[in-house]
Hints:
The complex is a heterodimer of chains A (about 240) and B (about 160). Helix content of chain A is about 20%, strand content about 30%. By secondary structure, chain A is an alpha+beta fold. In chain A, the strands form three sheets. A nine-stranded mixed β-barrel of chain A has the order 1-2-3-4-5-6-9-10-11. Chain A has a two-stranded antiparallel ribbon with strand order 7-8. In chain A, strands 12-13 form a two-stranded antiparallel sheet. Chain A is globular and about 60 Å long. Chain A starts with a helix and ends with a strand. Chain B contains two helices and six strands; from the N terminus they run E-H-E-E-E-H-E-E. A five-stranded mixed β-barrel of chain B has the order 2-3-4-6-5. In chain B, a hairpin with a 6-residue loop joins strand 5 and strand 6 (about 130-135). With about 160 residues, chain B is α+β, with helices and mostly antiparallel strands. Chains A and B meet through helix 3, helix 4, strand 10, strand 11 and strand 13 of A and strand 1, helix 1, strand 4 and helix 2 of B. Strand 11 of chain A pairs antiparallel with strand 1 of chain B.
Amino acid sequence: MRQRAYLAAAVSQTVLLLAGSNSSGAAEPAVRAQRFARLPDWVGVWQTEAGAAAVSGAGARAAAAGAASLPPSFKSCGPVGFPTIMNIPLADFMFELLVTPEQTLLVSTDGTVRHIYTDGRSHPKPQDLWPTPAGDSIGHWEGPTLVVDTIAREPGPVAPIRGSPVLSAAAHFTERLHRLDVDTLEDVMTIDDPQGLKQPLHSTIRYTRAHDLDRLIPIDCEHDRNIIGDHLGIAPPR
Amino acid sequence: MTTQVFCDFRHRRSDDRAEKSPRSRERSRVLAALSAALAAMPCIAHHTFANFNTTKTLTLHGTVKELQWTNPHCFVQLLVPGPAGFIEWSLEMNSPLSSYRAGWRPHSMSAGDKVTVTINPSKDGTPSGRLISATDASGHLLGKPEASPTAPQRPSP
Lengths: 238, 157
């Protein structure tokens, strides 16, 4: 009787090992380590090439020359959501990527977080889904390329500026994210939205790794002293 | 190697990327204008710095009251002697993130420090401006100077 119990336990353990998961659904450490080993190393703080150029000073000169073209009420210190965080040429917008077997986590300086689930799941059922700033993302790996599928992004402009194409809640985003070299990532993105666009939008976005930052530093609007509107100025110190 | 910002998204058919109809050319012009608008708000921030006179530079000598290491922008509160006592200037910097990357730290300046700053003054005549560069009492540069049409060049190392 006892031998039969041991045998049953051994068979059960073997099945679990073969499946790579324990009873809680988490992978066994050795199996998970193997899965980790197959993933690319995207450690670092990344920013769009245009954002990196802004840091060099050329962007500041462009700002002085073209500031009048911006909406006076524009504020870029708050969360800008997806997909803007993936393609914004501002110095303060950067992100870190945490690549795990179960999901890739993208954390932006503006507080936006993207969870890209790579555990084989599907998107939630339509009745269980609602629009959010980052949408719902699932992905899978094709070699070193992360293929991402995102839906349920809040309707609104692609970018928070005047004249930007406006997307509906039915917009569908596909991305192919991969590393070109040790300091360059590339995201090839397509936006399909039959309700909001006459034809798909395509973009290829490149990111460079920042070597002058040791961590991700958040941005927010907490201590905003800028007076905007009819009169532009600085509020007195608090 | 270039980066297309969202405004560079081409409204084009995925099966015909070389489409050059008048309609598509018009879209391209619109999107190029959007691209310029986004690219024009770089280093910075949440407004355009349009309230500063970027063609004018002032040099101020004063005593630090406070370095406000805050989002969305840092500020230096500087006490500058005037004919009727001290005048407190509010000098705007970039975000903590961008300032940190430029070599600034929360304690780069402390209350009581004697500093010399160059600024783009506000257009409205209030004692405020955009901080371009700062040096301590020994003449050492604090952080990396801001790029500005009127900013002094950074000294060679």
